[in-house]
Each structure stands twice: as C-alpha cells, then as structure tokens.
Amino acid sequence: MKDLSRVVIIGGGITGCSIAYHLTEMGWKDVVLLDKGELTSGATFHAAGLVGQLRASVNITKMLKYSIELYSRLEKETGQHTGWSEVGGLRIASSKDRVEELRRSAAMAKTFGLPMELISPKEACDLFPVMEKKGMVGAAFLPTDGQIDPSGVTYALAKGARDRGATIYTETRVTGITLKNGSVYEVLTEKGKIKTEIVVNAAGIWAPEIGRMVGVSIPIVPMEHQYLITKPIEGVRKGMPNMRDPDLLVYFREEVGGLIMGGYEHNPIPWALDGIPRDFTKTLLKSNYEHFEPLSALAMKRVPCIGEAEIITLLNGPEAFTSDGDFVMGEASEVKNFFVAAGFCAHGIAAGGGVGKMMAEWIIEGKPSLDLWRLDIRRLGAHHGSQKFVLERSIEVYAHHYSMSWPYEEMLSARPLRISPLYQRLKKMRAVFGEKSGWERPNWFAPNGVAPKEKLGWGLPNWFEHVRKEHETVRTKAGVIDQSSFGKIEIKGQGALSFLQKITSNQMDKPMGSITYTQMLNEKGGIECDLTVSRIGEEHFYLVTGTAFIKHDFSWIQKHLPKDSPISATDVTSSKACITLCGPQSRNILKQLTKDDVSNEGFPYMTCKQIFIGYGPALALRITYVGELGWELHVPVEYALYVYDALLEIGKSFGLTHVGYRSIESLRLEKGYRYWSGDISPEHTPFEAGLDFCVKLDKGDFIGREALLTRKEKGMSRRLCCLTIHSSPLMPIGKEAILDGDKVVGLITSGGFGYTVNKPIAYGYLPMAYSEPGTRLQIKVAAKRYEATVEKEPLYDPENLKVRG
User: Fold this and answer.
1) What is the pLDDT of residues 558-586, one digit of tens each?
2) Residue 794: is the preceding peptide bond cis (ω within 30°)?
3) Which of 247, 530, 553, 679 is the catalytic position?
4) pTM surpassing 0.85?
C-alpha cells in the first residue's frame, strides 16, 4: 500500500468516488481512496436510485443539474453500465395547498432553468397508468429527472478516477488520523499509514466517527429507511416517470416491470445511536413490516395494484440525516485541510455528481464555483456537537421530508436552546420567537388579545399588520430590539491594524472610536464577510457580524492570521448582550439615563465609546441597520437586564416599543442595507453589490484588490438593484424571477414589504442594461406576474439625514 499521497478520501460510496473522479479530472493524480469494505458497501448499494433536481436554492439546483449532465455521459466515457434513464419526475398534489406549492415550485423551476410544467390529473395518469386519479387535485412534471443504478454509477466514477491515476484500496479500515501544526498529517489504517496533505471525509453514516478522530463534530444521525420491491405488475411499463405523492408520504419508481415503493413516515426510527457495529458493511437492517404498514396503506390509495402485487423484499437500510436537512460540505474550521462531504438526507445519488465537482474545486481552488453557504460545515455551531440536539432535529427533518414547505416556517425541536438574558422578559411581553443558529430571537410581538403564534400558510402572514405597527413606531418614536445573537469578535495585539488592513476592503486606519462598515474579500474579489469594525484601542478592534455567520467569519480571520503573531482573535459573542435602541426619540431616552455626552456633536454617527447607562457599563456603537438614529448597546451579560429595564422605564413616556426581526427586515429593505448570504456573497464583488464606498483601493494591498482593479477596468456586467412591485401588499421572499417579457433577467435576492413607502420591495442583480432607475420589468411572486420598476436607492431617507441627526 502507498505510504504517501497528496489527498486521501475516506469512503467508497458515490460521494467519495465522485470526488476522486473530479480531482483527477482537474489534473490531480496523487489521489487515494479508502473503504473499509467494498465500493458502495455503505448507503449507496441500497439507495432507491431516484434522481431529482429541483431544490429551494438555485445553486444547489445547479449542482444537481450537473449530476444529471455527468450521469448522461458517464457510461459512454467509462464503458461501465450506469443504468441512467431520463424518465422524468412526476409530483402529485392530493390537496389544494399542495397544488399551490406545486404552482410555486413550477414557477421557481423555470426560473432555475428546469422545464417543470403543471399538468392535469388525467395527464398524470397517462404518464403513470397504474395510478388512481381519485383524490388527486393536480400534478407537476419535470421531464429531465431520472433514475440510475447507484452501484453502477459509483463503479463508473471509480473507473474514471482509476483511469486518470487514482488508487483505490478496499477492505482497508481507517483507525485514526494524526495532526501536525493544526493540519492533517497522516491517515492510519489496519494495513499501514499514509502521510497526506489533505483528508476528505466522505464516509456517510460513519462520517461522525471519522470526524471524532480529529475533533470535528459532524451532526448526522442514521435513520432507518424502508422501501419495497415488487415482482412485475400488469400495466407497469418501462420508462414510466418516478412518482411522488408527498401528501400521502410515498414515492414510486419502475423496476424491471415492477415497482419500488417507499416513503417518509412522521415517526422515523433512528439507528445505531451508541455506535455503528464494526461488522456493518454491505448489510441491511431487519425489515419492519409493522412500521411500514401505514405507508403501505397510503400507497394503495394512490396505486391500488401495489396491494395485490407479489413482494420480492422490504428493504431497510440506514440513511444519513442532518440536524438542519442540508448537506455537510467543505473544510472544517477546527482542522486545516480536513474536508467533509456527508449527510445527504436521502439525496446522495441525485447530488453525487455535483458534490464531487464542488468538493474537487473546494480542495484545489480553495472554494467551489458555486456559493454553497447553505451547505457549508462552518454554518454549524457548537450545539451541533450534541447528540441529543442532533437526534431531535434529525427526527424532525426526516418527518418533515414530505411535509408542506411554508414561507417563514421555523424548526420546532430542541428549543429553546441559546437564550439571551432578556428572553424571559420578552416572553412575558408576548414575543413570538424564531430561531437562528440555536438562538431564540423575537420575530414580532403579539398585542393583547392576539395569540402569540405564527400561522403557516400562503398569502400574507398573520403577523403582517402587527409588524407594520412596530415598523411605524421605529420610524416615528423609538424601538428596542434584543440583538444579543449578533456575532462578536475581538482582535487585538501588536500588528492588529496592519492585519485588518490586509483582510478588509475599507480603510481601517481611522481614529480610535471610529466604526467602519467593511467587507472581507476572497482573491477573486467576492464578499466572504460583511461586518462592522469598531476601533476601541490603538491595536484593539471589536467586530460585529450576523448571527449565523460567526463561525464562518471567525474561521476566515483565523485562516489569515500570520503565524507566530502576537495578534489574538477571540469570539466574545456569549459574553456580551446587544440591546439596540433606535428611532427619532432614542437620543432623548438615552439622555435620561447617562451623564455621557450623546449629542450629535459629542457622539457622531459611526463612532463608538464606553458609556454608563445608570449603573451599567456599555460599549455604545452609534450605528443602524434600520435607517434611523440609534445605538447598539453592547453590554456584559450580567448587566443586560438592568440596562433593558432602565430603557423600558424611561422609554414609556417617549412611546418606546418592542421590535422584532420581522420589522428589522422591512426597515432595512427600505434603507437598502445588504444581507450576506442573500444580497451579497462570495459570488458578488462590492462594486456589483453597490458597496463601492466600502472599497479603498488606494489604502495599500489587501486580499481581493487585484481582482477588483481588473473588474473596474473591464467594467461591470451586473449590479444589485432595488425594485418596487406594483401591487397590493405582497411578500416576495427571494429566488423569484425578474422578467423582461418572457426572458428571465435576474432573481430576487431578498424581498418584503416596506411599510413606510407602502410598497413591496425586492432586490436582485440585473444586467447593466436593465439597471437604470425607471426601467420597467416584471416580477413573478407566488407564480403570479406583477409589474415592477427599478428604483433609485435607498427608498427611505436617501440623504441619510435620519441616521446622522
């Protein structure tokens, strides 16, 4: 066995073989793949083989579209049978709500470049003739979906990788991984050691076990998943599409004249919580007919002949489900050059080709060609290392697999978890909480007589008018917002200023007490981080970022810290509460509580200083994300309740009200403030995003500067634009199509309703030819077309008089 390799991939399922295939395709030959059994001996060999493409994310959809592109040519390229068949995918609606979901899905699919069409129940039965039309309300058909032999395609990928130089060792169990200087160094196996620069954990349900070898938590729970295989059935013909009826929780596909039928029950069974048995290789679990019986009854409603069919087997195999229903991909922040690609939540075969390509790019080029933040392992917080948390969330994810996907829906399990010092107070004030990265955050506040609960459904949400009142109070009086979940990082030590100059696009060399809004860019000029930096000492800086991005941003900073540097970077999120006071009356309230000068002259916009609010110390940042006069008050957690109560008591006479995150979204849209992972991302430069003012090309060298100079010279091809929609109250939520006639010219990155301007607002990237204010376009919201106009932004207070007053 080789004792040296540039990269070692652990796991010989479709994911590991696809990564090896794509690494060698990109020119790397020194690739080793290890599996403790034979290839496909994990979840791959018992997968049902359905290949669908449409997901709620355009980039994940693109990744799955690439899988189909690859599968359609792989057999010819390698000579290895794959069983690929483009039979199409049929989705049934057995309820009116599901018809609406299909209608929206079809509109989104076309926006993403997929030819999904709504069809009638009769047309659906013509495509799948053994299906019962009774109870069917509608259907949608995507002709480019298909099915494949999971083992065949995996062996084809392995052959392609071998043909280009990869080495594959089966029956080779990994027993450990050693580290050196915080990076992977050696992979230990029962057959010897392999020194390596890079390890890729593609071990499926064994991925958490491999992760523990290097101290990386991977939130995966194996779930029992069953499907039955029948003998040939009269009326079942080759080439019938894959069929899913999510209202009845079941799916079907043709298999040698018979059917495969499975589903996603609401009471899933987790497996191997105390560890996977050592001898569990190419092995199935015992069939559980009693547990499968309710699904069988539902299946017979849609396909009655399944009740009379002769059953070959009821197959039960464990599938890896994650704590948020998304894949786990990318480089772990805890260990350099330790990559993960696992947790595919029953989409492993559909995703396999695209995941391999993205991971190969991630490994070789430092980032994938698509922004995959939603799947990035750095999205996961410390609580994802708790098996109890992961178990409860994974059960919810599995049980929800075929449930309706409503706008603004929240996870319900394992809550509350991370709570601010104000949580109980806010709960008494009838806060309706949402959850972000484990944090409980107030979405809105229910007035007396209104149930403090969000009702899921289509159309305007039940909180629409209550949020309007919160919004209006911030614009006319004052609001208090608990933003303790903000990510907070301190950077200090000799050289901290120079370091920040190097990794940010804006000018950091400003007087003490200055606040700077800036981005951190990658080498291509894309926006990796979006945050504020307060200079609280000569070589001491306080950074604030979004709730969900702290681990991502902190790992980006750590990755670029010079070796043996006296500079320290510390995540101080949990030590500070953040209470935001905003609105025209906020200064008058603050003046009653502090002897410190909070006048405009004594405390200008975009500055910070330590003040006392009554007895309590606070780092006060005069900054806003709502477009009004205001302060973020960063308070040690033990003082937070005192400061909050003091603000409320004094604020009564000034009309102070509680405000939640639904209002923040409306307020920031009117002001044109960007949101990372939506409006801006590693795929967008500051110039395209309208953040030119954050780029100081003359300050000296910084990461991404050369790329920005090149972009500036060539000129931009697109720009983030603000549009208003000509309609009655409407809530665009993102990913809707922006149209010029029948041509899709852009996608909405974020949207909502602006209560001050009294219009629906949408942001999206448009080609420069469409970016001029006054340009008339159309936007498809909830599958309906509305007229829209490109606006000069911001819509509210364009001269910044409110925030500077």
Assistant:
1) 999 998 899 999 999 999 999 999 999 99
2) yes
3) 530
4) yes
